[in-house]
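Summarise this fold before class:
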Amino acid sequence: WKVAYRFRDYIRPERWLIIGSLVALLTSTFVRLLKPLPLAFAVDHILVEVVEHVDRMDGGIGKESAVKDIKFDSMFDIALQSIDNQYLLLGCALAVILIALLMAAGNFLSTVGLSLAGSRILAKVRSDLFVHLLGLSMKFHSGAKNGDLTMRLVSDVGMLREAVVTALMPMLANIFVLSGMLGVMLFLDWKLTLFAIASLPLLWFTTNRSGKRIHEVSREQRKKEGGLASKASEYIASIRTIQSLSLEGETIRSFEGNNSQSRTQEVKSKKLAAGLERRVDVLVAVVTAVVLFNGANAVLDGKMSPGELIVFMSYLNNSFRPVREYAKYTARLSKALAAGERIVDLMDEKPDITDKPEAKDLVKARGEIHFDHVRFSYHDKSKGQLAVLKDVDFKIAAGESVAIVGPSGSGKTTLTSLLLRLYEPTGGAVRIDGEDIRNYTIASMRKQIAVVPQENLLFGLSIRDNIALGALHNAGAVTHAEIVAAAKLANAHDFISVMPDGYNTILSERGGSLSGGQRQRIAIARAAINQSAILVLDEPTVGLDRESENYVINALHNLMKERTTIMITHDLAFAATADRIVFIENGVVVEQGSHTELLAKGGNYANWWKMQIG
């Protein structure tokens, strides 16, 4: 119910399709109630009547004459007297076919309708879940496992959809059948019906008790499978390092450990489900045997006709089908329920960073930046609250380039993360053009900042499309001339031109078909397409050979013209080209000034310069 309630807004647009499908299901259920009647009619009104009358005849009269002389007690029987038995049998046979056709039509319409509604609902759920994931802050993503999130988005939604179509719908149909058949059974013989119903509490207790245990195991199994997916994702992404360091053996042992845990939970779930199925089968068999014994005696005593017993036993068998179906599908439904809970838990995760109700759009920034007494800390489970930035305060004028340097872990990248509102400061404020960035809408503010990250994300699209993504406002409206101009600015046009399909060359996943320098230059071209006032460079030259580094640095200087630029770098030769250098250590600004001024001071920066350059 928790899952269904959470999906109510997704179900509402499909309500008429669902209602129509349920009407078809109810129609099919009603027709199914008629299924045993042609056989019962043939037994009671044709076969039994003929046999009994023939047995009572004194010799000399043939069966055909005996049949014609049968005396019927009711008006219905009198009406049937004038119809030849062959026609009655043919009518019964045709009724069987007609009932089957009507059931098939109802089942087809209900199955297709509910499947279509389920697919639409869960496709929208998956789409919104993906959007929701993209909107969650880095605080959430830094603690989450990518493989598990991917599994929730793809596998859990798919499992929920499959369970709705293949397990929940048949059970829903059987519940309708149960209601109708119990009504007919009460009409035929209320004593036998009450005896059959008396077993339902025991069946409910058995299935409910086992179902809870299966659900707990299934929930744990989904967690184990999520961990397994995370391990696989981590290892595949690191395949180059694993092979380079010959870590295959250790990696396989680690993966097998997670795989074994998942397998153990799967076997446990199967054993519980199989045990439940067998217990339900035995209980149903006992009830059926007792009802058959008492029903047969009722026929022998003349209290019930053979046809009525056939109908009753048929209805009894179908009445227990929902219980059998639950026992059969309980593991699948439990997995689906666990998957649904995992989806709901993720959808209920609240973003840490959201727009204020009164937030305004930043249409065109001048580019002035002020880190106004900024403080930032995060919570560590073992060490408690850890301070990263401690009262950092400095301004960057519009159009100025500032290099932020310092030891690893000093808080350099954190500053750019705060500027992009990937995190919120725990004290102070980050301002653009004098305004606290929390007063701007996140989307409009980020459009004013172009980023060249250390690890560039290139998609499996054409080179043209990868560059065009930089135009955040409308990537589809970027012209080919603009793409080429951006590539030339990034010193990427020459190597793109010699590729088999030029700008239409499709890149492999994460741009693996390109060298590091080529990927970086495409990222620079992407940033050039974004006509923003602010540029952030996060270690743009790390891991490049000298030739590629020269190409990239030249392209970066082209990109930095007339833009406010923040350079996070360990490359002091590149940092020296900035208008100003800010040296950060242990979360505080130790010194700042131009390259010449800092060398003259002989402080931290000068010592670093001597070690790296000298």
In short: The beta strands are 369-380, 384-396, 401-405, 427-432, 435-436, 449-452, 534-538, 564-568, 580-585, 588-593. The longest strand covers residues 384-396. The two ends are 69 Å apart (CA to CA).
